[in-house]
Design goal:
The complex is a heterodimer of chains A (497) and B (656). In chain A, 51% of the residues lie in helices and 6% in strands. Chain A is mainly α. Chain A folds into four domains: 94 residues, Fumarate Reductase Iron-sulfur Protein, Chain B, domain 2; 69 residues, no CATH class; 109 residues, Glutathione S-transferase Yfyf (Class Pi), Chain A, domain 2 (Up-down Bundle), CATH 1.20.1050; 151 residues, 3-Layer(aba) Sandwich (Rossmann fold). In chain A, the strands form two sheets. In chain A, strands 2-1-3-4 form a four-stranded parallel beta sheet. In chain A, helix 7 crosses helix 11 and helix 16 crosses helix 17. Chain B folds into five domains: 124 residues, Rossmann fold, CATH 3.40.50; 186 residues, 3-Layer(bba) Sandwich (FAD/NAD(P)-binding domain); 80 residues, no CATH class; 163 residues, FAD/NAD(P)-binding domain, CATH 3.50.50.60; 78 residues, Alpha-Beta Plaits, CATH 3.30.70.20. Chain B contains 17 helices and 36 strands. In chain B, helix 4 packs antiparallel against helix 17, helix 10 runs parallel beside helix 11 and helix 11 packs parallel to helix 12. Classes of the chains: A mainly alpha (497), B alpha/beta (656). At the A-B interface, helix 2 and helix 22 of A face strand 24, strand 25 and strand 26 of B. Bound molecules: flavin-adenine dinucleotide and iron/sulfur cluster (5 copies).
């Protein structure tokens, strides 16, 4: 086997793809939110791999623009996993040192490195130390300085944690073991992918009744930058009569950074949470962050399939995951409660509020794993918004990517993406967004000022968390659920209803 | 004493390169009962057959084994040669040492060994063969053609013009099929209705064609030359014998808002209707599901308006039983439901339509009288984006195969659009342009070079609405760049798929179908118009996606097969049928249940006084297909299959 063949083989093993199956239709490029920013858009990357120009693919800048939204994979007629190819190439590029010397790569890589370093040290993400370390690496101190200050003021970032490491995981040596293990060569093969019929068959909803206690996995963002999501989720649950029990000693799921750079790490970090939740007797765990939920759900699937991985988790944590615990999002929780049950509790219907329900990528993709709602036209959030009296609009960009984890590293691109999304929402009559993911919220909210200044053609649009609106409709005081802490003023719109 | 001759064919190098034919001849020559064993380069050739005949005569052979290719290829040839040499043809058997040996093995010695075993086991069988006579059956000289699209019409006309009787059955109220819906047709751009309507009229007026519209096949029994078919005449609620097709009832019917199937939902029709103006026959039917009278018992406006008293609300479905000698299946295709493409917004945005809907827009008889207007607001579109392979070559959402016609009809659409709307821009996303056929590539080039269709190589990922435009996000893979086009209309070149009921229909008729539901031909290359059931032929798009020239060609080919069949008074059938030993039969009826062809009946054995002393199973040799299922079921070992008796099979196996 030549060097090229070996690399291709390695890619086939880690993605499940057989690259002969790509027939170069280009649908992946057509749907890629970052396609216009890439030197080699996804279809070309696939062709480079197919034709054996792996080195060129590894050096491509495109890898550092890919946001991992999985639109490409979801729509590929030949069932190729393009997103996984991007991930594997990125990991391989780092491993081989074959990376482009461009600015974009440096920025993204710096971000992922800072992120993972931070997680390795604390077990969870300490966001200010992340921002600082990222800025040191990229020397972009002024970017976002004002938002940073606002975050410290509102308590979203706790500067003391950075010094003391107080908010971190207790079993630090387990985290270190995970990182060490993921530096070893991975033997986890991904099942082979071949063209198949892709049909959406909705999973049966869970059933959750008032009075129940369910597990809670806030993840790093809800204990940091997305504090208002945490506050509103807790408030919402108490108004709905649900009790939340946090997973004891949970760690960061690894988020985009692990996923984008190290397949093994991206499995072992969430796997520890799974093991803990299982051991703590949980069956349903609410993971409000779509990114965390997505990581947990896909990892759970791999754990069920792979004996090897279960053994590895046992060696690290001393617990073999049973995979009893299932991680669900807020929309799923509300669906499981039955919209009628919610309707009964509405005190202040949000009549007249026109909303664009924004799902982003991670709530609907990959279809097989997340799949509780139609992947091309999800409607479950709309059902809940209707139940609380608001008016969801019909619009076209609810599953387009906002730029996800590249918010810091590829700011101009994220602005373009959120601009098209916001424009379409506005055009279809929305006054505000409702989201169920802190990444979406950050990109649409924190980036909105800059975006609006740059394009100058969209109005100000508050970005609510689904939990905020449900809590408010069920009687919570808007200020109490921290709506006032958003970047785009959001308090007034809901207060005057 | 058996005197068997064994003839080992080299098949050029096909067999000889892997099997030592000479050695095979020598060793089989020593097998008990073998009188002569010869090898030769091509036994199927004339000199080869002469050798075989000569050996039969010289050695007074009692049986022959030809070790050669599959019996599918030359069993008939060698049996005929035997007959010419005075040997009962059923005393000749083929040992397949090509497909089952030389073609699939690489080791010379082992292949030779295996060829030896195969041949020896056949020798042992032939020793036990009996002389058999072919069964003669009469032929009913009347053909049934199912489906009144262009393929069915063509087949019916060809058979009728040759002087034979045809019954043409169409399940819709009118003949025509999809071709009646088309505007102009590639590659010549002649008007579809103009070339179709005369054919429809001819078929309906032909003295040898009995046309049954609004009719379906209820059941088919029998076999080649002798099919018994029951046809359901669906209640029209209009008396065909008195109705003149004046259309008064249609004009008066107050239920006018029913989406027209013929106009693909873009036009409306009444509850009493003919699908289109030139319908053949031009006699309406009442759509029971939409008719106000049938729904709430009030209305009968049509009845009052009909001066000839032709409306009859009490009409019931009727059945017609007829015998046929041959059946042509021409049930056509459907276009795929595009709502599977959530990302293209079909069904959500009015101006995203499919190719067939575009045909209706472009057709002079269509809802816009041939003007290309957007369904949403009736405006003329300034540009149209066409998306090819929408459902074809996409097994994630649609079908894996290429629908074969959509490259061509999309090029046609772009031309029609350019001709009808001046300055209109057609933009086409495609994966490949497949335009093989007489005048076809020239046609697509013309669309590009003369009518300025802009082609983009790549698929589309999403269509959405913005500012009253349809935004199409695709890719130009030749440039490697994503493309966004703001369009006034989007047309999906939808996949051609089998009729939704194709698989059930195939079971009714007793023919095979592929994984999608297209009917199977007996041999893709050599017997493309025959189904695997003798006497049933295929024509048109029911067998695979086809355009009009191909459908018509296949229809004429089917007709010629039917005519060849009708050129004989009697048919010979292989005598491979089961028979029952009535003295040992216990009457358990296991075989009756087992027989897939319903060929076994219960028979009373009477004593002299006419009293029933015993009931036994009895095989109808006319219906028996020789599958042998009953033999394996029979507990008392009473059933046996001529040509494949248990004795023969055991001898064959034991010789291995
Ligand atoms: C959008 C579009 C554009 C096209 N343009 C062209 C063109 O320009 N040039 C060209 O050459 N080809 C064109 N074609 C292809 C053309 O339509 C087909 O080749 C042709 O219609 C096939 O004829 P058919 O008789 O096999 O099937 P059909 O036309 O489908 O006819 C089948 C008939 O059988 C009837 N039937 C079905 N099931 C039963 C049953 N169980 N019992 C009784 N009757 C039954 C149906 O009602 C129908 O009348 C086009 C196709 C499409 C979709
Ligand atoms: S969508 Fe799939 S088949 Fe098409 S180019 Fe991309 S990877 Fe290849
Ligand atoms: S995952 Fe998203 S950003 Fe990455 S290549 Fe696929 S479509 Fe593009
Ligand atoms: S009014 Fe009577 S004669 Fe005229 S078309 Fe109707 S049914 Fe036929
Ligand atoms: S009964 Fe009335 S609704 Fe029914 S077909 Fe006649 S006129 Fe139309
Ligand atoms: S004929 Fe052309 S458009 Fe139709 S499926 Fe084949 S390649 Fe695609």
């Amino acid at each position: 086997m030549t060097g090229t063949d070996a690399l291709k083989h390695q890619l086939e093993k880690s993605t499940g793809n057989d690259y002969n199956f790509c027939y170069q239709c280009g649908k992946c490029t057509a749907g890629c939110p970052a396609g216009a920013f890439m030197d080699s858009p996804p279809a070309r990357i696939m062709r480079l791999v197919q034709a054996g120009f792996i080195e060129e693919a590894l050096k491509s800048e495109a890898l550092w623009f890919c946001v991992g939204c999985m639109t490409c994979t979801a729509r590929c007629p030949q069932n190729m996993d393009i997103a996984a190819t991007m991930d594997s190439l990125r990991a391989l590029a780092l491993e081989k040192g074959l990376v482009s010397e461009s600015k974009s790569k440096k920025l993204v890589n710096a971000f992922h490195l800072s992120f993972l370093k931070n997680v390795r040290k604390h077990g969870r993400l300490e966001e200010l130390s992340l921002v600082n370390s990222y800025k040191l690496r990229t020397r972009s101190f002024l970017q976002d300085a004002s938002s940073g200050v606002k975050m410290i003021k509102s308590g979203k970032i706790n500067p003391l944690h950075t010094l003391t490491g107080k908010g971190g995981v207790k079993e630090k040596e387990q985290i270190e073991k995970i990182f060490a293990a993921s530096e070893q060569e991975s033997h986890l093969d991904v099942p082979k992918r071949r063209p198949v019929k892709k049909q959406f068959t909705p999973k049966a909803p869970f059933s959750i009744k008032p009075g129940m206690t369910i597990g809670y996995y806030p993840g790093c963002s809800l204990s940091g930058t997305a504090r208002e999501y945490d506050i509103s989720v807790k408030k919402m649950c108490s108004l709905l009569g649900l009790h939340l029990k946090e997973i004891e000693d949970w760690n960061c799921c690894g988020a985009t950074s692990a996923h984008a750079t190290n397949h093994k790490l991206a499995l072992l970090l969430p796997a520890r949470n799974q093991a803990l939740a299982d051991a703590q007797g949980m069956e349903i765990v609410l993971a409000p962050c779509a990114a965390c939920q997505n990581r947990q759900v896909t990892t759970r699937k791999t754990l069920i399939e792979s004996h090897e991985l279960r053994q590895e988790v046992r060696a690290i944590t001393g617990i073999e995951p049973t995979c009893k615990a299932q991680f669900i999002g807020v929309t799923q929780l509300l669906e499981a409660m039955d919209p009628e049950e919610i309707k009964k509790r509405v005190i202040k219907p949000l009549t007249g509020l026109s909303l664009a329900c924004y799902y982003g990528c991670l709530l609907v993709r990959p279809m097989d794993d997340m799949g509780f709602d139609d992947p091309e036209n999800p409607l479950k959030m709309e059902a809940i918004m209707t139940a609380i009296g608001a008016k969801p609009v019909d619009w076209a960009f609810k599953i387009e990517c906002c730029g996800a984890g590249l918010t810091l590293a590829q700011q101009p691109m994220v602005e373009e993406l959120t601009h098209t999304i916001t424009k379409n929402a506005e055009e279809n009559g929305a006054d505000a967004f409702v989201v169920a993911c802190p990444l979406c919220q950050a990109n649409l909210d924190m980036r909105q000022g800059g975006m609006r200044k740059r394009f100058g053609d969209v109005k100000e649009m508050p970005v609510y968390y689904i939990s905020e609106l449900v809590a408010i409709a069920c009687g919570a005081n808007p200020a109490e659920v921290a709506v006032g802490e958003h970047f785009v003023p959001a308090l007034e719109l809901v207060s005057k209803l | 004493m058996a005197k068997i001759g064994v003839f080992i064919c080299h098949c050029g190098e096909n067999i000889a390169s892997k099997v030592d034919c000479n050695k095979l001849a020598t060793s089989i020559g020593e097998h008990p009962g073998v009188a002569v064993a010869l090898d030769y380069k091509y036994f199927c050739s004339d000199p080869g057959q002469e050798r075989l005949k000569k050996a039969i005569k010289e050695n007074n052979l009692t049986g022959v084994v030809v070790a050669a290719c599959s019996p599918m290829m030359h069993e008939a040839t060698f049996r005929k040669a035997c007959a010419e040499a005075g040997l009962n043809p059923y005393l000749c058997e083929i040992a397949n040492i090509r497909e089952q040996c030389s073609w699939v093995h690489t080791d010379y010695d082992m292949a030779t060994q295996k060829a030896m075993e195969i041949t020896r086991s056949m020798v042992e069988k032939v020793k036990r063969n009996n002389k058999l006579q072919p069964i003669e059956v009469p032929v009913t000289r009347r053909a049934l053609v199912i489906g009144g699209g262009i393929a069915g019409i063509q087949a019916a006309l060809d058979i009728a013009n040759a002087g034979q009787q045809v019954v043409l059955v169409e399940r819709e109220p009118s003949l025509g099929g999809h071709m009646a819906q088309l505007s102009e047709t590639f590659p010549t751009l002649d008007c579809s209705q103009c070339i179709m309507t005369p054919r429809m009229v001819e078929a309906s007026q032909h003295p040898n064609i009995r046309l049954l519209t609004y009719a379906e096949i209820e059941s088919v029994d029998g076999y080649i030359g002798n099919f018994q078919v029951r046809i359901r005449m669906k209640a029209r609620y209009v008396d065909m014998s008195t109705c003149t097709g004046c259309g008064d009832c249609i004009t008066k019917c107050p239920t006018k808002k029913i989406s027209s199937e013929f106009d693909c939902g873009m036009g409306k029709r009444t509850a009493i209707y003919t699908p289109f103006a030139q319908s053949v026959p031009n006699i309406p039917v009442i759509d029971k599901a939409s008719c106000t009278y049938f729904k709430n018992g009030k209305c009968k406006v049509c009845m009052k308006s009909c001066e000839l008293n032709s409306i009859n609300f009490d009409m019931q479905d009727e059945f017609i039983d007829l015998d046929f000698g041959a059946i042509v299946v021409a049930t056509g295709f459907q276009v795929q439901d595009n709502s599977v493409y959530g990302e293209y917004g079909y069904g959500k945005y009015k101006d995203v339509i499919n190719g067939l809907q575009f045909e209706r827009l472009a057709s002079a008889s269509g809802p816009t009288s041939g003007k290309i207007l957007r369904p949403s607001d009736g405006k003329e579109p300034e540009n149209i984006v066409f998306i090819q392979c929408a459902g074809s070559r996409d097994c994630s959402k649609g079908v894996r195969y290429c629908s074969k016609i959509c490259c061509m009809y999309t090029a046609k659409h772009s031309m029609l659009y350019a001709h009808k709307v001046h300055g209109g821009i057609a933009q086409i996303f495609y994966m490949d342009i497949r335009a093989a056929g007489k005048g076809y590539d020239e046609f697509t080039r013309r669309a590009i070079e003369e009518d300025k269709a802009a082609y983009f190589r790549g698929r589309v990922s999403k269509v959405w609405q913005e500012n009253g435009k349809l935004m199409v996000r695709g890719v130009d893979t030749l440039l490697g760049k994503p493309v966004v086009i703001a369009a006034d209309m989007v047309v999906l070149a939808t996949a051609m798929v089998p009729q939704p009921d194709a698989k059930d229909f195939a079971k009714t008729i007793g023919i095979g179908y592929d994984e999608y539901g297209f009917f199977n031909e007996a041999h893709l290359k050599l017997r493309p118009v025959e189904s695997s059931t003798a006497g049933v032929f295929l024509a048109g798009a029911c067998q695979s996606p086809k355009d009009i020239p191909d459908s018509v060609a296949q229809a004429s080919a089917s007709a010629s097969k039917v005519l060849a069949l009708f050129s004989k008074d009697k048919l010979e059938r292989e005598p491979v049928v089961a028979s029952n030993n009535e003295t040992t039969c216990a009457g358990c009826w296991g075989c009756v249940l087992a027989c897939p062809y319903n060929a076994i009946e219960k028979k009373d054995i009477l004593d002299r006084s006419g009293k029933v002393i015993k009931r036994v199973a009895s095989v109808n040799p006319g219906l028996c297909q020789g599958c042998g299922t009953c033999v394996t079921f029979c507990r008392s070992n009473s059933l046996d299959l001529a040509g494949f008796t248990e004795k023969q099979i055991f001898a064959e196996v034991m010789a291995l």
